[in-house]
Amino acid sequence: MPDRKNLAKIHIAKRELGLSDTEYRRILRLCFGVSTSKDLREEEATDLLSLLRDMGWKPGNTRKRKGRVEND
Description:
single chain; about 70 residues; mainly alpha; globular
């Protein structure tokens, strides 16, 4: 089972890529033979994250910083 950090990244990537649950589960089934990311081995989770990056996901800190002022 992947660690919590990688599971969180996987689900963030799924959301940010706009994958439906059906699309996401199809990827899991076809590429890894599982129906849920919790059933992946750690190395498979790493492979899935690489695949999601190849699909266009760009990991990064999307949290807004407190006190940050945006100028127009």
